Every structure is written in structure tokens, then in C-alpha cells.
Amino acid sequence: MRGHANTSRLIVVADSVRALSGDDTVGAAGAASEASTRASPASGRGALLHGLRSVLSGPDLHSFRLLFATRLTGQFADGAFQVALASYVVFSPEKQATAGAVAQAFAALLLPFAVVGPFAGVFLDRWDRRLVIVWANLMRAVLVVGVILCLGFGLGNGPFYVGALAVLSANRFILAGLSAALPHTVPPSQLVTANAVSPTAGTLVATTGGAIGLIMNALVGTGLKSTIGVLATVAALYCAASFVALAIPAGLLGPDEAPGDDMWAAVRSVARGIADAAGHVKQRPSAGRALVAISVSRFCYAAVTIMTLLLFRNYFNNPHDTNKGLAGFALAVGLSGLGFGVSAVITPLVTRRMRLEAWMTLCLLGAAATEIVFGVAFEQTPLLVGAFLLGVVSQGQKICTDTLVQRHVDDEFRGRVFVFYDILYNSSFVVAAAFAAAALPPSGVSYPVLFIVAVCYAGVGVWYWFRSQKRPDAPIPPPGTQPATPTTSAMR
User: Fold this and answer.
1) Is the dihedral of CA 457, 462, 465, 467 positive or negative?
2) Please, are residues 295 and 428 in contact by the beta-carbon 8 Å criterion?
3) How far from 76 is each of 4, 160, 224, 235, 371, CA to CA, in Å?
4) Is residue 342 helix, strand or coil?
């Protein structure tokens, strides 16, 4: 079951298992790693459980519970939709899975995070957020019906991907709107708890939706009829989310006061802000080097992910036995996700005894060694061991990167820098998908690609280590003047 759940998160590519990801914050892992060195685990758990009860059952929180129910219903459908998309494109008996088809699916899933996400706030600060959530859910229900018609009438890949991309782009507005609206539904004393509960529960529910979609595929098959059935359920759930949001009192979710500047001027301002963030990172070598390293690492991880998917789909198993291929890939991703969890435990312990830069370098070199030692045989058992180890070192690097960026950028630039980080993080996966489409055969077996990935991991590791030994950053404000937990506004 763990493998199935983590597969749905990989398809979201939410880190990258939120790969991937996800989900709505870049940098939360790094903040958590620092916080874990200061907080008492036992007292932290007790306070969290008390906070959960108070936020979900406390008085005068009816609007929060409606907003929370809207999130859970919509994100459950998100997980099912993403798995249906991936299952049809990659694991459908009627279709031959190629690197190009996989790349198109990943591009459709990730482009909204890189392109739409940074600009969502401009519109959410001007439009009634309750109505945005209501109409965006209804719109994506209609779009899912459009995707069903594309499949049913065999209109080809073009309309299918346009519809899927539109659904996922609408998701970015909804997730951003839910986060922006949340402070209007809870008192200030419970805001931190509500912020902890909502995205975490949403991610878990999305994973559950994906897992149930996978189970349905395993029970009834992964063909066209199965996909259409799942998508019809998804459309109904999006409608349900819209109706739940409609029950929230009008005007409650803000914005309280629309900005005075022109909307398109604000869009241009966001673009300038991202450019300013890139310039600031260039002046903060510690943060800039970490972002370069994780962009290369993300590219490599994505290439390996697509290679692994093709191996289980077309090489390790009979290409016509799609259920077996899906189960094998789910196991690989589940083990990689387990590695993410192990890394979240050991990285704070390791970095108490060595510099973040040293641990990052070891993670990058370890990834290179993992690819050569466990990948070159192109056999299932070594590959599964390698998937676990790659999860450990990939998440270790990400935790260090998040922390370094938090520490080494000025507070006035931090939000824009994390938007820039999110764009790099997701764009690297899209670029890797394009590379895989051109370089990988349908079987997934490619020694040149494996060698390129290993060389990239090792090369950026060596480069990062030597560059981190020089060029100190310019002076920055004392740590006490900077927030401990910067986040993006509703990003993966």
C-alpha cells in the first residue's frame, strides 16, 4: 500500500515524491530540520494533537471546516486525476509507452507549477477568493468532462494534453486560494496549527486518492473504460468541492481590500520580482551554489525516474501486463519515498557534526555512486536498492538546500527567492523529461543516459565542494531579525 500511495505522489510530482514534492511549500523540510534540533519531540506531539482537536472541533470555526472540507474533497480528486492521467498515458494496454509519451505526461503535470503558480497571487488579491474557489472547481469539472470526451471520441493526444494541462493549471489557483483564504477562517492564535493541518492533510488525501485510483486499475484493469470511469468520479468530486465552498459566507475569504495598482502591472511586477530574486541569489553565493546544485540533481533524478518507469513498463515485465509493470514501479517509488523519510531523520543528526555543504557534497557523490553500482546491471533487485538510496541522498540534499537558502538570503527578498527556487525545481524536471524523450529507448535501457546522469551528479558534487570553500557571502542581517520558516505562497 505504501508503494501505491507514493506512486500517486510521484505522478503529482509533488518532490519529488513532492518529489517530489509537494506540496505547497518549498523549504518546509529545511525549516523542519532546524526546528527539530530545538523542539522536544514528546511535547511537540502532544501540542500538535491538541491543536488538531481544537482546530477541527473548536467553536466559531465552521468556515474553516468548510474550507478544509473543500480542500480535502478537491485534493482527493486531484490524486485520482493524476493517476488516471499517468495510467492512461503510460500503463494503458491500448497505448505503447515511450519516453516521449512519458515526457508529455510529466510536462503537463509540472508546467502549471512553474508557469502559473508564481502569478496566481496577483489575481487572488483582486478577485473574491470564495468565488474563485467555487468557479475554478466547477471549471475543472467541466474540463475533466472535456478530457473524457477527447478519450471517448479518440481525438488524439493534442486535445487530451491541453485539457489535462488546463485542469492542473486550475489546481494552482485553487490551492493558492485555499492558502490565502485560510487566515480569514481561524483566529490568529490557531493560524499556525491550521497551516500545519491543511496542507499536510491535503497531501495525505491526494495520496489516498491516487492510491485508490491505482487499486481500481489493479482490480478492473488500466484500459480506456477504467480511465473514463475514474475521470467521471473525479468530475463529480470537483463539483462536490465547489458546492462545499459555496456554503462559506459570501465575502468572508477576502481580499479585504483590492490593491490599487493595475492587474497587468502587478503581473509585470511579479516577473520583475523573479528577476530581482535571481540577481539577489547571484550576490549570495552560498544560496546560489545550492540552487545550481539542486537544479542539476533534480534533472538527474527526473531522468532516472522516467528510465525506471520505462524499465518496469517495457523491460522487466511483459509490456502487455500493465498491472505488473505498474506494481513494480509503485514499489520502486515507495522505496524511494521511504528513503526520503529516512533522510529526514538522519540529516539533522549528521549536520550537527558536519557542515551542510559537506553533507550536500556527500549526497551528490553518493547519488553518482548509486547510479553506477546499482543501475548498471539493469536488474530489478539492484534497481530497487538504488531507488531507496537515491531517495535518501536526494532528500538530504534538498533539506540542506532549503536551509542554506533560508539562511543566506535577505529577508526582503526571501519570498521572491523561494518563488524562483520553485520555478527552477519544477523546470528542471520538465527539461529532464525533454532530454529523456530524445535519449531513452522504449525499453528504458540506456548505458549512455545512465553514464551522463552519474557524471552530472559527480561533476556538480565536486564543483559544489570546491566552490563552497571560497567566495563568502556579503554581510546579511543578524539571524534574529529573520523569520525561521520562509515559505512560498501555495506552490507543489
Assistant:
1) negative
2) yes
3) 14, 21, 21, 11, 34
4) helix
Can you read off the three cell numbers belonging to residue 48? 500538535
CA 13, distance to chain mean position in Å, is 4
Q: Where are the beta strands (DSSP E) in 380-457?
A: none
Residue 145's alpha-carbon distances to 6, 133, 402, in angstroms, are: 27, 19, 39
Q: What is the DSSP string of 241-287?
A: HHHHHHTSPTTTT--SS--SS-HHHHHHHHHHHHHHHHHHHHH-HHH
CB distance 383 to 311 below 8 Å = yes
* Cell 529545511 sits on residue: 30
Count of H-run helices and E-run strands, the chain: 17, 0
- Answer whether 108's CB lies under 8 Å from 241's CB: no
Q: Any bridge partners for residue 200, and if so which?
A: none
Which among 86, 120, 37 has a CA at the least distance from the CA of 484? Answer: 37
The model's pTM: 0.70
Report the chain's C-alpha Rg in angstroms.
Answer: 22
Q: Cα separation of 93 and 95, whole Å?
A: 6
Q: Nine-digit cell at 322?
A: 500493465
The residue type at 414: R
**What does the H/E/C string look like for 171-231?**
HHHHHHHHHHHHHHCCCHHHHHHHHHHHHHHHHHHHHHHHHHHHHHHHHHCCCHHHHHHHH
- In 3D space, the residue among 299, 292, 296 whose CA is nearest the CA of residue 429 turns out to be 299
Give kind and range of the element (H or E) at residue 402: helix 380-408
Bridge partners of 15? 20
Contact 481, 293 (CB under 8 A): no
Q: Return per-residue pLDDT of the chain as tens, 492 residues.
A: 333 333 333 333 333 333 333 344 343 333 333 333 333 334 444 544 565 677 777 777 889 999 999 999 999 999 889 888 877 777 766 566 677 777 777 777 777 767 776 776 667 677 888 998 999 999 999 999 999 998 888 777 778 778 888 888 788 778 878 887 888 898 887 776 777 677 767 877 887 888 787 777 766 666 677 788 889 999 999 999 999 999 999 988 888 776 666 777 777 877 887 888 888 888 899 989 999 999 999 999 999 989 998 999 889 988 877 778 877 887 888 788 788 888 888 988 898 899 999 999 999 999 999 999 999 999 999 999 999 999 999 989 988 988 888 788 887 777 677 778 888 888 898 899 889 888 999 889 999 999 999 999 999 999 999 998 865 554 444 444 444 333 333 333
